[in-house]
Design a protein that fits this description.
By secondary structure, the chain is α/β, with parallel strands linked by helices. Among the domains are: 49-186 and 263-301, 3-Layer(aba) Sandwich (UDP-N-acetylmuramoyl-L-alanine:D-glutamate ligase), CATH 3.40.1190.10; 311-457, Protein-Tyrosine Phosphatase, Chain A. It has 13 helices and 17 strands. The chain has helices at residues 6-24, 32-40, 44-47, 63-76, 91-100, 144-147, 150-160, 274-290, 294-301, 331-343, 393-402, 425-430, 443-457, and strands at residues 53-58, 82-83, 112-116, 133-136, 166-170, 185-190, 218-224, 227-231, 244-250, 255-260, 263-268, 311-316, 319-325, 348-353, 383-389, 410-413, 433-438. The protein has a nine-stranded mixed β-sheet with strand order 2-3-1-4-5-6-9-10-11, sandwiched between helices. A six-stranded mixed β-sheet has the order 12-13-17-14-15-16, sandwiched between helices. Strand 7 and strand 8 form a beta hairpin. The longest helix has 19 residues, at 6-24. It is globular and about 65 Å long. The model has no long low-confidence stretch (mean pLDDT 91).
Length: 463
């Protein structure tokens, strides 16, 4: 921790006053106080005192869910902690969280922090805040204009992750599991399951050749994209031995069996998709390294659920409305949801509102990601309609046509606010389930769609 300066004390006073003013006017004050503090005192994060123990979670996909799962388990075991779960995962959000959980002049009230940390902005965080345990869920292609390529992000993390930080890494991700090779580490993963295919039909695989010697990698299985287990026959590069390895999944009973350093542990499952299982595996590995027992962790999982802002099911008029986050400008995240949809039984319709809300006015979005998302997964007889609303609705239509989806099934429109109108009475008559996919920045649209569709299915008027 840096020595506190007069500028720091002035800044913390102003940030406190700003927080009070925001709350008095009905604002949550989850971002602005941190932004103000960083503006007035650029090394504010370095000067404010930190909790004694810090757990960090980073990675392209899943970090919010993992942080929430870690927090749920800790709460059920009597821990209190600092968290940025209600704010941003950039420096400003972390500063705001530390401010909110400190005394007036910046001494921490709690000894533990669980922080979601954006991988792209980590150079602005790790020099001032060093996690004791840092989990990296995965590294995938993300927004091109912000994150470029997964190897670029891996390079950033390799430069800035503190040497003393213990890493919890995805043993099935050959990009992230080779981060900071000199650091102490453990790996989590999922063994190939009997009901899985051993090859992938995804468009993207970013680990086809060995990064050490350029020889082709030999996969024992590929679960999706580059997630799987592989080795290079020439130089020895490949998947590590996994410490926390899911060996069996019983979806009917809602249980997963994990082998932890040779011993089997059984956990309740908070979700049944492969993404859910990876998130739970990450959580188990982090909390076991933190010091919790398998029994303590399972107590937290027993009645847990994925937060409704990420996944929610509503029943109305004899139909299921399934709302799920599909991170916009992220081909992997969208493809995972498309894959989930194709595995579900019944007659289905899909409504997409995944344009970046903040790009809508003056967008410089690179739309290449749309063509790397696996829309082919929606080209199925049991998918009766694929709808899309937002400024780039015609781009999505072109992509759907290229995926071979029948034009009669495609329904698109520019009007975001009335996206539910794309789900016509004819579509409702043909389907049992309607999947609504939304971006982090379009959650408010998902809420309106839920209200509109629920009213329609119950015979009411849309609002």
């Amino acid at each position: 921790m840096k020595k506190k300066t007069l500028r720091f004390y002035f800044t913390i006073f102003i940030a406190r006053m700003a927080t009070v003013a925001l709350r008095l006017t009905g604002h949550k004050a989850t971002h602005f106080p941190g932004l103000l503090a960083n503006t007035l005192c650029p090394d504010f994060l370095g000067q404010i005192e930190k909790p004694k123990k810090i757990i960090g979670v980073t990675g392209t996909n899943g970090k919010t869910t993992v942080c929430n799962l870690i927090g749920d388990v800790l709460k059920k075991n009597g821990y209190t902690y600092v968290s940025n779960s209600e704010g941003a995962n950039l420096s400003e959000g972390i500063v705001t969280a530390l401010l909110a959980n400190s005394t007036f002049w910046g001494r921490p009230k709690k000894d533990l922090a669980v922080l979601e940390i954006d991988e792209r902005y980590s150079p602005h965080i790790y020099p001032y805040l060093q996690p004791d345990i840092l989990a990296c869920t995965n590294l995938f292609r993300d927004s091109y204009k912000r994150n470029a390529h997964s190897e670029y992000i891996a390079g950033i993390l390799n430069r800035v992750i503190p040497d003393r930080t213990k890493l919890v890494l995805n043993g099935d991700d050959l990009i992230s599991n080779h981060l900071k090779p000199a650091n102490d580490r453990v790996y989590f993963g999922i063994e190939w399951q009997e009901d899985e295919v051993s090859v992938t039909d995804n468009i993207i695989n970013d680990m086809v050749v060995c990064p050490e010697c350029d020889s082709p990698l030999e996969y024992s299985f590929i679960r999706y994209n580059h997630i799987g287990r592989a080795h290079c026959s020439r130089c020895g590069f490949g998947s590590p031995e996994v410490d926390y390895d899911v060996v069996r999944v019983d979806k009917e009973k809602g249980r997963m069996t994990m082998k932890n350093k040779g011993r089997e542990e059984v956990y309740h499952m908070v979700g049944t998709s492969i993404t859910d299982i990876y998130n739970m595996s990450t959580t188990v590995a982090v909390l076991r390294e933190f010091g919790l027992s398998a029994k303590d962790i399972d107590k937290g999982f027993a009645k847990g659920r994925i937060v409704k802002s990420r996944f929610n099911v509503v029943k109305a008029g004899g139909k299921e409305l399934i709302f799920t986050l599909a991170k916009g400008q992220n081909p992997i995240a969208c493809s995972r949801v498309f894959d989930y949809i194709r595995q579900q039984e019944g007659r289905k319709a899909v409504l997409l509102v995944i344009d970046d809300w903040f790009d809508a006015k003056d967008s410089s979005e690179n739309i290449a990601w749309i063509y790397q998302a696996d829309y082919e997964f929606l080209n199925r007889d049991d998918v009766k309609a694929v709808c899309s609303a937002g400024p780039r609705y015609l781009d999505y239509k072109v992509r759907m046509l290229l995926a071979g989806i029948d034009e009669k099934k495609i329904h698109v429109g520019k009007d975001w606010m009335n996206a539910a109108e794309l789900i016509t009475d004819d579509i409702l008559a043909q389907t049992d389930k309607i999947f609504v996919l939304y971006d982090v920045a379009t959650m408010h649209l998902a809420k309106k769609i839920r209200t509109d569709l629920t009213a329609k299915l119950k015979g009411g008027r849309q609002k």
